[in-house]
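Review this today:
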Amino acid sequence: MLAVKNILTGEVGEIESAYVVVERNLPLVISTPHSGRCVLEKYADHFTFGDGFRVDNDMYTGELYPLELGSSISGNLSQHQVNMNRSWELIEGRDPLMTISFLSEDDIYTKPWSDVEREELRLMHKAYHSDLARLMKQMKETYGYALLIDCHSLNSRALSNTPDAGSIDRADFVIGSLDGASADSRVVDVFHEALEKQATPRGLKVVRNNPYKGGWITKTWARPEEGFHVLQLEIKKKMYMYEGIDDDGEKAFQKRDSFADIQKVLEKAFRETRDFASTIL
């Protein structure tokens, strides 16, 4: 068991591990690498716990996305503790990810990490990716192909560390396909169409590869010629939560009433894409 501190409530509790793996005999793998809302309690004094620190986290993605539709792997720790969607080499070079909040430009970390601390985090990172690799290889052995959807959220206003820094006109759903190279084009098209089918009647917008084309997990597993297909999805936080960028007051970082409706959008789109892929791959 790991003693942890919740970055929203400040409460101290326990989790079994740095991430959770659930295996299901279904033709889909879903990852939510940034879904954790905790840091290790013994390292809590490394963090400032300001609003900028919280804004930079993918809140509620482990609950929002339909993990039950496939095998899943979900982070339990904040991406500021260990970022599962970066190569360890990049993490090592940025101590361990970034030193300031891109919302407030305030420090996120209060002190550097020791070699012993870094090694503990490296082993957690390594274990996550070993288990993700196992899920992908098992699916390919079982079904002849592997399909991964890597799930994230994005802020409604682009912060200074993003490709579209300063933008306030971001789409509600951003599919990352490495400009079409991450998966069979038919699967990408059906995913886009399935999302639009749900989004358009709600006045929501779906785009591809703008501003995000796909992160490290997508780039690592995007080998459609070998039977490994990946889609990345970013969802605008403002659709389902009070993201804490504007003056949300006491509601900051809480779920909106629309949370359950966005869950339904995702469940239908993921299911349609999973089932279509099983007929053509």
Summary: The chain has one domain: 2-280.
